[in-house]
Design a protein that fits this description.
single chain; 119 residues; four-stranded antiparallel sheet; 11 strands; 53% strand
Length: 119
């Protein structure tokens, strides 16, 4: 079973950037589609971005499109989320998740990393 650990969160001013990392252990990520989700206080968890297990395709929520970029480095067993032009409404706990190939549920989740954007 793969385990995921996020890092890179923190406090940043509006307009700034952060890069989140999701490091995997226990199994190679190369067969997993990877996603980033976020949960703001008092709100449900929402999808932000995903990258296919082959790395050939990405998909973004409208709220982050053009500002966030998801990427993967299977040699390092790590997935990244580059976040630019951050807004206060991006404040949330960010989670990475994995699902085998591109089917089935998001079966594996990290513990989350806090991102706070000040105005």
């Amino acid at each position: 079973q793969v385990q995921l650990v996020e890092s890179g969160g923190g406090l940043v001013q509006a307009g700034g950037s952060l890069r989140l990392s999701c490091a995997a252990s226990g199994r190679t990520l190369s067969s997993y589609t990877m996603g980033w989700f976020r949960q703001a206080p008092g709100k449900e968890r929402e999808f932000a971005a995903r990258i296919s297990w082959s790395g050939g395709s990405t998909f973004y929520a409208d709220s982050v499109k053009g500002r966030f970029t998801i990427s993967r480095d299977d040699a390092k067993n790590t997935v990244y989320l580059q976040m630019n032009s951050l807004k206060p409404e991006d404040t949330a706990v960010y989670y990475c998740a994995a699902r085998f190939r591109d089917a089935g549920p998001w079966a594996v989740w990290g513990q989350g990393t806090q991102v706070t954007v000040s105005s």
